[in-house]
Amino acid sequence: MPQHEFDITIGADGSVEVHVKGYKGKSCTEAVKLFERIVGEIQSEQKTGEFYEPEEQVQFRIDQRV
Amino acid sequence: MGATLVLVPVVIAAWPAFSAAVVAAAASLGYHVAAETVKQGRLAAAPKQAGSVNLEIPRSEVVTNQLGRDQRIAVTREGITVVFSRDARGKAALCVTGQGQDADALRRLGEELSQAVVQQYVHQKITDEMRARGFVVVEEETNQDRSIRLKVRHWEG
Questions:
Q1: Does residue A57 lie in a domain region?
Q2: What is the pTM for the complete model shown?
Q3: Minimal Cα–Cα distance from B104 to chain A, Å?
Q4: Domains of chain B by start residue, with CATH
Q5: Which end of chain B has the least Cβ crowding within 10 Å, N or C?
Q6: A37 occurs within a structural domain
Q7: Residue range A33-49: average pLDDT?
C-alpha cells in the first residue's frame, strides 16, 4: 500500500519547507500545487529522483504459445 | 522523496481566523489578550509618553464584511501593548506601544510577534487542510529556534 508523506518545517517567521515523499511523476506536481494553494508563494523547488519515476506501475504478461 | 519546496506564506484570512492566530501567537510569547473590540476608542488608551511604532504584516489580507471592518485585538506584556487591526487597504496591521522602549526595540517586538502570528496561521491552515485530505499527523515538535516540525502521512488504497 503506497504511502504518501510530507515532512514540514514551519519557521519562526512562517516560512515553510516541505519534503514531499511517496509521490511520483505527475502526482508529485499535484502535491506541490497543493502546498502552493495552502501556504503561498514557492520560493524554491527541487525535484528529487522519485519525481522522475513513472507514476503508474506497468505490468507485463508474456504468454508463450506452443 | 519526490520534491523539496520552500514557500513564503501569504496570509489571506477572515477576521476570526486571524484573531485566533493572534491569540495563539501571543500566548506562545507570554502576552495575554487585553481586549478585542469592534470600534476604535474602546481599547484602553496608551499611557502618556509611551512610544509607538506602526507595522504591517507583509503579504497579508484580512477579509471581512462591512460589520467587521473596524475589529481590533490588543495583547499586552510587561508594559508593551500591541493592537492588531485591518488597515484601510485590507492588510493586517499592528501598532506597538510601550513606555521606556525606543522605536527600534518596539519594532523588534512587533516583528517578533507578527512573525509568530503568521507561523500560527500557517500551522493551523496546514493541519486543517491535511486532516481534510485524510492525512494523519504522526509527529509534531517545536524546536529551540521556535520552528515547528510536522510529519503527516496518508496511506493509499
A1: no
A2: 0.86
A3: 18
A4: 11-116 (3.30.310)
A5: C
A6: yes
A7: 92
